[in-house]
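Quarterly update from the structural biology core.
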Amino acid sequence: MMAKATFPESRIGNLVERRTPREIDHPFALALDNIESWTGHLLDRPGPEGVGVRSGNYFEPGDVLFGKLRPYLAKAWASDRAGVYIGDFRHERVGSSR
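Predicted structure, tokenized:
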């Protein structure tokens, strides 16, 4: 039998910082269609940048984006690069200095 892991209890607001959307132009644009459900992997399909959309809300490496549209699809991505997101995401910075 495996030992059960224990983690300290904390409110989510003490662990992450909600990022305020800041719209800019950027060569890498991300939409909900670019994230695979339940895995967080980026899908190899044309994103908004393929159709000329490059303006959106800025994110940085280390930010986490959660899709708010149809939450049962569980679309989330931990960014490994900077870019902009298009669509309805909740944008968090993990490990903030709160």
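The first strand starts at residue 16 and ends at 18.
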